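pipeline/complex-builder :: batch 7 item 3
reading input block
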Amino acid sequence: MIPYEEAIRRIIDACEPLPSTLVDVDEAIDRVLTSDVVSAADLPPFDNSAMDGFALDTSAGVLPPGAELTVAGSRAAGDMAHDAGGMSCEIMTGARVPLGLDAVIPVEQVTVLDRTGQGEVSRIRLESAVAAGANIRRTGQDVRHGEVVLHAGQRLCPASHMLLAALGVPAVPVVARVPVAVITTGRELVDDPAQVLASGEIRNSNGPFLADRLAEADAAVVYRQTVGDDIAPFLESLQQGIDRGAGVVISTGAVSMGRHDFVPEALRAVGARVIFHKVAIRPGKPLLFARLSDGQLFFGIPGNPVSAAVAMRFFVEPALRAMQGRAPTSCLQLPLARPLETRAGFRYLLKARVHLDSEYRLRVDVLDGQESFRIRPLVAANAWAIIPEDASRLAAGTVVQVVDLDGRGIRIDGSGDGDGT
Ligand code: AMP
Ligand code: MG
């Protein structure tokens, strides 16, 4: 049995960077960049009006309230560059500012004094002072040509998609999805939800969970299979996963000390190198990590659903992040809402809920129902509380490390579903 820190160090050491692939920006959501994106354009690409109003020439100084000006013409978004010849003009939001003009006054801050026969404004009085640059969005004010706008290792989100679209970037280099095989073991498992359970059977809940989480982590599940408790079908399944190109294999179940826990023996039979087996954590202690003879990484994770969730969050996902060139997730330090007892010598990874107390301070509540077979508290959780190996009795208010459930940030009450926005 080794401590968590040692286990994660060995995992990260075994991880190699994934190759890069070019994808269309419209397909790039949630993908991880392999190189910085440097802007080949200014944004905005030209000086344009931030308001519906009138473009003016202030080169002789600030125009005072009460100034009266003649207006000629009107510019709308999409109109080409135009020389105003020093004359004020009507202008709409997003329209290119005419050459020779350098400020915009919003329509609400002028009085229209006269109109042409066609109804176009021809003379205005300013109702407020206007200085150079007022209400103009400058060329490159948001992004300058040549600037790094997104960094290697960054995961693309809708806002970055918006930025790439605004800059006219057609495709970006992203980390290739690591092919993963998932093998769930246990003769008690039933995959088909329509199948009536026979005595002693349960439904496979780890398989769907792992498939979801792997997709969220930008991995590709290339193979999924449920096998019983015998070595031969397991090895057959392992070979099929490898034949489908898996670079990472995850199995659940059969890694503890029970009579049917055959995974370590099966791995030895195919010449795998076990890098560790058993970590001083709870839940999830029997975790096994190995390298298969052809170089694939193998995670043998325990069958209890919460142990599987812990293994995914604290071992598999950090490995995927390392392969993707992403920084490790950061953790918060939050006070416990209630006292807690654990056993020294183990790192406890506990289903937890981060919430705001009555004074709007963040607190972490370690949830009732920590047993590793209990899935329902996992649904109520929005975080994991990490209780260090040297702790045993923790008073309410003790500050502990807290991480999100899935590498996507902690969603606290009031910021998620049902907050009315
Ligand atoms: P094992 O690690 O194989 O000893 O399994 C530990 C516990 O987890 C047992 O109660 C199993 O029935 C249960 N279990 C194993 N695999 C799964 C799975 N894929 N889905 C749900 N429960 C499982
Ligand atoms: Mg089993």
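note: The first helix runs from residue 4 to 14.
queue -> next item
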